[in-house]
Amino acid sequence: MNISNSIGNYLEELSSNSPTPGGGNVSAFCGALASSLGIMVCNLTIGKKKYLDSEEELKGIKKKLEKAKNDFLTLSTEDNQAFDRVMESFRLPKDTEEQKSVRSQKIEAATIAAGLVPYRVISLSKIIIPYLMIIAEKGNQNSLSDTGVAFSLISTAAQGAFFNVMINCSSYKDNQQAKKILLDAEMDFNEIKQFCMMGLEIIGKKLGQ
Fold first, then answer.
1. Does any domain span residue 140?
2. Residue 7, domain member (yes or no)
3. Environment class of 26 (CB within 10 Å of its CB; exposed 0-12, middle 13-18, buried 19+)
4. Residue 190 is part of which domain span?
5. 160 lies in a domain?
6. Residue 6 maps to a domain
7. Quick check: 42 and 62 in contact, CB under 8 A?
8. CB 35 within 8 A of CB 65
9. For residue range 156-170, what is the model confidence (pLDDT) as tens digits?
10. In 12, 42, 74, 81, which residue has its Cα 20 to 30 A from 24's Cα atom?
11. pLDDT at residue 151 above 90?
């Protein structure tokens, strides 16, 4: 997402017939939204007498989530740029056999590189889940529903990013880099799914009390 854009303009661009921004961009933006909600709950906790014991820990988590939010926004922009490079490689000349070979190599390299961006979204999603777990346990309990939405969003970020890893890397399984990205992404995504389900279950039980 271009942070200089209004949400209205972003949604208009997203709804248009342009391929960017697309699902990869939105996945990274979901990560930024999840981080922002985590930051909000930290802000609603810090300074409250009831939560003095966890204040310093949440201050540290808040700083880490602020960095994660900015990193997710950077990745959302990089996702657009990676797709543009793939499209540029498809426009390379293919009149001779040599040109066809070069074009094919460039397409493969650009496509696999485009798979790296959503993989980084998955990796970053995995990093912030423990922070959300602590927020659910030690943060302002009046904001549990907000923490729950953060878990839902980070799960969506990882799921969407994994789809984008698959579409970029699954056609090049014979390429060792693509194969590794795909396998690592799947392993991290499966772990994220488990922890998000656990986090949502904890919050659901607390809200049901």
1. yes
2. no
3. buried
4. 21-208
5. yes
6. no
7. yes
8. yes
9. 999 999 999 999 999
10. 42
11. yes
